[in-house]
Each structure stands twice: as C-alpha cells, then as structure tokens.
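Question thread 4412

I'm putting together a teaching handout and wanted feedback from people who do this every day. The idea is simple: show students a protein as raw sequence, then show them the structure tokens that encode its fold, then repeat with a second protein so they can compare. Below is the first pair exactly as I plan to print it.
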Amino acid sequence: MYRFSSPLYPWIHGNIVVSNDISTIIVTNNLNNSIAIQLTWFPSKLKAAGEAEGQQGQTHFIIKFINEKSNKIQEHIDYRFVICDQQNKSVFEQGLHSGWGVEQAAYKFIAPGNYKAEVTINYILFTPVKPDVGKFNIVAST
C-alpha cells in the first residue's frame, strides 16, 4: 500500500494498493450503447466478515466504462451500481455521475452466499440513453 498526497492541493490524498489478488469481469454482449462495463474487485476471493470486523472485511470495487468503438474510457456516464443478496434484496446501492469513466465503491459482505451486482448506464455525455445493464455474479465465502 502506498500513501499519496499533493503539496499543492492538500485535499488530494489517498492510498494506492498494489496486488495481484483481483478479479475482473467485462460485460460487452447485448449492450445498446457500445459501452462495455468492467467490474473489478479486490480481494478476488470474497470472505463474509462479521459485524465487528470494521473495514478489514471490505471488498473494493472499480467500475470502468469502456467505449467499444475507440477502446478508451468513456467519460460522463450516469450509472447505478447495486448489489443484491440471495433474496434479491438490495444490500448496497450507489448512483452517480462519472466524469472520468472510472469509479470506485466498497462494501462489506456480512453473510456468505451468492450475490448479484448490476451496473446500469442511464446517461452518456449528459444525454439519456436506453439503459444498459451489466450483470455480475459474486460469491462470498466464510
């Protein structure tokens, strides 16, 4: 883990984690808008954490929107990221505007089981589009 900060802009700071323990899935099929949705998570083997484990049990997600025509990151995407449990109940939701085309989220899986993650694209370049949904299956073990 590397900590970074900017001497010129004190509000810019954070951590960079370098690891080969990641999983990545890209959804490209049956999309209306030629924007591939890439979901990456760390650690790759999810473990359900107990309530008292704090941030140690968190899974970190990175969502990328890739323009399939140019093969570059697509900027200005309005999206919704949802994780649902085995009963299809939403346990995490994040809806944002992605100015850069790359976003992050973190969630702590409390119970083991099969989860579904969905990333829905609603706007591209500030224009409403026919929604695209990337669906991902995630398994959290004990």
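The second pair follows. I'd like the answer to focus on this one:
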Amino acid sequence: MNTFIVLPTYNEKNNIREIISQIFDLSIPDLNILVVDDNSPDGTGQLVDQLRQTEPRIHVLHRAKKEGLGPAYLAGFAYALEQGADYIMEMDSDGSHHPKYIPAMREAAKSFDLVLGSRYVKGGGVSNWAWSRRLISKFGNYYARLILNSPIKDMTGGFKCFNRRVLEELDLANVESLGYNFQIELTYKALKKGFTIKEIPIVFTERKGGTSKFNPGIVLESFVKVFQLRFKK
C-alpha cells in the first residue's frame, strides 16, 4: 500500500514540522509525505528541505508562486502518481486534520475508491469554530448537496484518500477550481464516474497558529462553480 500524503503549504513553517512528526509517529509502512510549497516567504519549503536530509520518505515540490489550493494539489497528485503511489491522500498542513484518522482511512480505502474524512456524519464534528464559520460551512455543504444532487454529507472537506485509479480517470487537466471548491469538484466528478465513496467521521480543529486562508472570495467561488458543475455539459 504505497501511500503518498500530499500537504500543500504557504507560510506553514510553524506547523509543518509537527504535522510531519505526527504522521511518521503512526509507524505506517510504505508511507511518504509530499510537501507542495508555493514559495512560502516564511521559509516553509527550506525547512522541509532540511527535514528531508535525514528522512528520505519526505518529498518536496517547490512551486514558483502561490496559485491556489487546486493547482497545488494537482501538481502533488501528478508527482505521487509518477512515483508509483497506490493511494494518494490529501490533508491540511496546519493541524486541522489530525493524523490519527489516517489508519482508518487507509483501511477503508482497501474497499472503496475514495475515502472522505467527514465532519457531518455521525461521530464527526468541528472544534474551535466561531458560529459564523459553522454557519457558512453548513450552508455551503447544503447548497452543494442540493445543487449537485449529492448523497455525500461533507462535500467541502479536504481530508481524502484516493485509490490511484480515481485520479487517473478523473481528467485532472480539466479541473477548473482554484480554491476550496476544488474539494467539491473532485468529489462530484468521482461520483459522476461511479466510483465508490466512503465517509469516515473526523473532528476538524481550527488551526492553533498562523493565518487561515479562508476568506469571502472562497464562498463566492464555490457558489458560482457549484452551479457551473451541475449544468456544464
């Protein structure tokens, strides 16, 4: 089960060392970490280069500039596929997604094509969120499920485990979303392709340090892109 965990970073120097350590503390065989850094001004990429000198399972993909979450993940997926990964996971690099859920997601991936870490199934939830953020998230999921006629409870979540064949068949070159709508687009396209999907409950915890990338533009992009996804021929 050669697995690559893709961690996109932009100014995550204060978080990346801990998340990498927590992942490797799981002692899972055949597990690699790929950090995709968008030329972070705080030196995140350079720090990971240093960590790689003593841990060959760490990989670093340096990008010239910040281009959005979607392109960063797509670059990471392409790299992982080239390296022969059987499973490709994606998760936040700020500690919001706890690595303790990785073993259960990997186990479920033996039976399902795509496994989602879900906040909105029984046993899942969020921690340290303001009421306004909770409201936006719940409305966004409701809107995406309604417009896309989706049975998935957490369409906007970014903690996922793909079987490589899913990414090989999704026509990633034509993925259009740059920001957080990227998560909705990939899950929806996997559904449309008929891939089997399993939701595993997780508790999402707001980052302890650094600056959140969430902003009103993300909401606007998702509102428009979800509608386009539904009615695009």
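Top answer:
Good format. For the second protein you could add a caption like this: The beta strands are 3-9, 31-37, 58-62, 87-90, 114-118, 125-127, 160-163, 197-201, 203-205. DSSP finds eight helices and nine strands in the chain.
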